[in-house]
Amino acid sequence: MYLSHPVRRMRDDPLEAETVELRVEPVDDDARAKLSEYVRSLGGSVERELQFGGVVVALDEANVSALCEFDGIERIETVDTLGY
Predict the structure, then answer these.
(1) To 5 degrees, how large is the angle CA 41–CA 46–CA 48?
(2) Rounded Cα–Cα distance for residues 69 and 1 (Å)
(3) What sequence ranges are listed for the domain Putative peptidase inhibitor (predicted)?
């Protein structure tokens, strides 16, 4: 799985009480459906679907590490990095 540099920083050294929006690219439609449930279990939400298969999720930085453990993700990047 590809993680952008800012996502690796959040995973390894999260800021407390900070919420982040991330662009997550699931490997397939089945993973996308499970990802939505998993993000909700972490206290986050799926904010929107993107045109080419990605989704934008919002969650606390403290939960980025748990998101990275989800099997079925191709890449995770910050939304700001991509200019959304």
Answers:
(1) 175
(2) 10
(3) 1-83
CB 22 within 8 A of CB 56: yes
Task: Report the C-alpha gap between 26 and 34 in whole angstroms.
Answer: 10
- The string of pLDDT tens digits covering residues 20-77 is 999 999 999 899 989 999 999 999 999 999 988 899 999 999 999 999 999 999 999 9
Phi, psi of 31, rounded to the nearest 5 degrees: -65, -35
DSSP 3: E
**DSSP labels, 63-74:** GHHHHHT-TTEE
Which two three-digit tokens encode residue 4?
């952008």
